[in-house]
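note to self: dont lose this again. the chain is below, predicted strucutre after it. 156 aa total, dont forget to put it in the shared folder this time
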Amino acid sequence: MKLDDIFTIMDKFSASNLDVIKIKDGDFSIELKKHPQGGVVLPAQSTAPAVYAQTVLPADQQQVSQPVSENPTVSAGAEIVTSPIVGTFYRAPSPDALPFVEEGQKVKKGDTLCIIEAMKIMNELEAEYDMEIVRVLVENGTMVEYGTPLFEVKKI
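---
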């Protein structure tokens, strides 16, 4: 399947009333899901439709890292920021740059928390409100899925 075909499917799916669609064509498969309402989800800055795509590669080509903590315990008064899309989590804008945020750092609304690369698009996750980063829950370069806990934060 060509990339243009995938974008066409994503556009039509985004405009539809469907919540989930799965397509399989030989070794290639794609699953699209619309974001459910609720939870702590920060907006991604991208021109992509409000859906995510997961490309399933043959088993011998898959490399998925696990988050530092799959079910993190949350301190009193803290919240979990989760991934709004499937992609690769990056703490910094480039390998030799400093991370966007560190544990203990206070962040203003609109500041970049991380980048999630999805389909060769770099999606910046911005703080939805003023917060303090309590813990970073995912290692740099980790493949994350929709809803993966990324940061433990406290509103300030």
